């Protein structure tokens, strides 16, 4: 065979550490969910009113937690199994999962729900309210109940009109029905978005909040070992490699506690091993994969080095808030308040309000801060600030060191 076909054919047939790499894909739903048994149980308890007295109440549950903590996968597994078990008890229940980031408007959400119910809706001319009425009539005719999961609900709350939020959440104030056939599971990354909502909306949502904590390194280790068993050849991944990935991402060791990132690192480690024609995934492969995945984060660390003192104090303020409150975004006023405290701690005179806002604007332009308008459903609109990168103990120490160095150089 001639060049370059020989290379391609050779690589195509070269051995692989993978047995079934699809099982590392984000869309793959694993059979087991280590360390989420208690969440499956909490969800069941929250929704069991549907079984006790079908149609009496519309259950509302909120799942909250950082990215990669298993919110989506756990709710999908729960929905699938719960509806099957309930069906065996003679209650027709369907689980419907809608991603509000993909279906960005109330109209698209209702269309998606109808589609999942295999209900054909005339393509044009009907309002979302009318579509909901058709859905409800359909459920009545079939004597069915549904749990609608609105994943990435933060997006809906921040982009939709007050009217649409009201309608969706307060559904049964608007629809005159005898049996409440629709229950909701709302998934939000940041619970503060709920606490700043109007009381009339909040009361309909925040009755039952289930929190998903970031995974510890031991928890990630178990999750990764499960994937190693199903996705890799026997004995192809060293224990050192798995332990390393679990330790760098474990929340208790200063990582973000993100299972997605950990699985991605495992997959990349395998690809690197394959490209080197190594029959096993070693610690070195895991380290290489980790540094490639974290390259973006290290670019940000580089930028932080060149910040002036008060921008650093602002970054430190947000880090403090993330650690204290275990969430990601904060109203701008709260950040300024924390900044004043940080200044006190470092014996620095805080800058004036307008100057602080100018620093924040620059941090946003540099890609260090993210800003987002709070939802229309919130009392008064405010800007919410978050960091564009995950907080770790290492980062916190690094910023403190940079602040110390700048203060020293000022005194000299
Ligand atoms: N306990 C677990 N056991 C096995 N796999 C898990 C577990 N938790 C999460 N995962 C896997 O980690 C990845 C991320 O999980 P998932 O999408 O559910 O997180 P999430 O909390 O919804 O994240 P985001 O907020 O970014 O949407 C998926 O591939 C999922 O299968």
What would you say this structure looks like, in words?
The structure is a single chain. The chain is of the alpha/beta class. The chain has 3 domains: 5-17 and 215-293, Helicase, Ruva Protein, domain 3 (Orthogonal Bundle); 36-212, Rossmann fold (3-Layer(aba) Sandwich), CATH 3.40.50; 300-411, Orthogonal Bundle (Arc Repressor Mutant, subunit A), CATH 1.10.10.10. 54% of the residues lie in helices and 11% in strands. It is built from 20 helices and 8 strands. A 5-stranded parallel sheet has the order 2-3-4-1-5, with helices on both faces. Helix 5 packs parallel to helix 6 and helix 14 packs across helix 15 (283-293). The radius of gyration is 25 Å and the shape is globular. The model has no long low-confidence stretch (mean pLDDT 89). ATP binds at residues 69-73, 215, 227. Residues 315-399 form the Cdc6 C-terminal domain.
Helix and strand arrangement:
Elements: H1 5-12, H2 37-47, H3 49-52, E1 60-65, H4 71-88, E2 92-99, H5 106-116, H6 128-142, E3 144-151, H7 153-159, H8 162-169, H9 171-174, E4 182-188, H10 192-195, H11 199-205, E5 209-212, H12 217-231, H13 239-249, H14 259-275, H15 283-293, H16 295-304, H17 309-325, E6 330-331, H18 332-345, H19 353-365, E7 369-373, E8 383-387, H20 393-411
Low-confidence stretches: none
**Helix and strand string, N-terminal first?**
HHHEHEHHEHHHEHHEHHHHHHEHHEEH
β content, as a range?
5-15%
Bound molecules: adenosine-5'-triphosphate
Question: What is the number of strand segments?
Answer: 8
Helix content: 40-55%
- CATH architecture assignment name of the largest domain: 3-Layer(aba) Sandwich
Quickly give the structural class: alpha/beta
Q: How many separate structural domains?
A: 3
Across the major sheet, the strand order is 2-3-4-1-5
In CATH, what is the homologous superfamily of the largest domain?
A: P-loop containing nucleotide triphosphate hydrolases
What global shape is seen?
A: globular
Largest sheet: 5 strands, parallel
Distance between the termini: 70 Å
CATH topology of the largest domain: Rossmann fold
Count of alpha and pi helical runs: 20
Supply the CATH class of the largest domain.
Answer: Alpha Beta
Mean pLDDT: 89
What is the gyration radius calculated from CA atoms?
25 Å
Family: Belongs to the CDC6/cdc18 family.
Function: Involved in regulation of DNA replication.
Binding site for ATP: 69-73, 215, 227
Protein name: ORC1-type DNA replication protein
């Amino acid at each position: 065979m001639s060049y370059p076909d020989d290379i391609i054919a050779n690589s195509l047939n070269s051995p692989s550490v993978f047995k079934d790499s699809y099982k590392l894909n984000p869309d793959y739903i694993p059979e087991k969910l280590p360390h989420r048994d208690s969440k499956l149980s909490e969800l069941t308890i929250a929704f069991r009113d549907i079984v006790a007295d079908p149609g009496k109440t519309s259950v509302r549950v909120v799942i909250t937690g950082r990215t990669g903590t298993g919110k989506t996968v756990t709710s999908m597994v729960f929905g699938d199994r719960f509806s099957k078990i309930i069906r065996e008890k003679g209650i027709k229940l369907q689980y419907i999962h809608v991603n509000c980031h993909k279906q960005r408007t109330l109209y698209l959400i209702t269309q998606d729900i109808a589609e999942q119910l295999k209900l054909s809706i005339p393509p044009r001319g009907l309002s979302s309210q009318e579509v909901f009425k058709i859905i409800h009539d359909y459920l009545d005719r079939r004597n069915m109940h549904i749990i609608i999961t609105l994943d990435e609900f933060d997006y809906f709350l921040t982009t939709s009109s007050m009217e649409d939020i009201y309608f969706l959440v307060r559904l049964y104030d608007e629809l005159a029905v005898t049996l409440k056939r629709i229950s909701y599971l709302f998934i939000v990354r940041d619970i503060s978005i709920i606490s700043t909502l109007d009381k009339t909306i909040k009361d309909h949502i925040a009755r039952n909040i289930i929190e998903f904590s970031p995974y510890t390194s031991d928890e990630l280790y178990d999750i990764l070992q499960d994937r190693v068993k199903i996705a890799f050849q026997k004995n192809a991944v060293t224990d050192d490699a798995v332990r390393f990935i679990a330790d760098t991402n474990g929340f208790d060791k200063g990582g973000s506690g993100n299972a997605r990132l950990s699985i991605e690192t495992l997959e990349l480690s395998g690809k690197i091993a394959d490209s080197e024609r190594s029959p096993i995934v070693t610690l070195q492969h895991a380290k290489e994969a980790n540094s490639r995945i974290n390259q973006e984060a290290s670019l940000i660390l580089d930028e932080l080095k060149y910040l002036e003192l008060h921008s650093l104090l602002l970054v430190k303020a947000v880090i403090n808030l993330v650690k204290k409150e275990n969430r990601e975004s904060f109203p701008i006023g709260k950040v300024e308040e924390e900044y004043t405290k940080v200044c006190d701690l470092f014996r620095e005179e805080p800058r004036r309000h307008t100057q602080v806002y100018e620093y924040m604007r620059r941090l946003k332009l540099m890609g260090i801060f993210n800003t987002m308008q709070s939802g229309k459903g919130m009392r008064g609109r405010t800007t919410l600030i978050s960091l564009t990168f995950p907080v770790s103990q290492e980062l916190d120490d690094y910023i403190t060191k940079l602040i110390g160095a700048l203060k020293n150089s000022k005194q000299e």
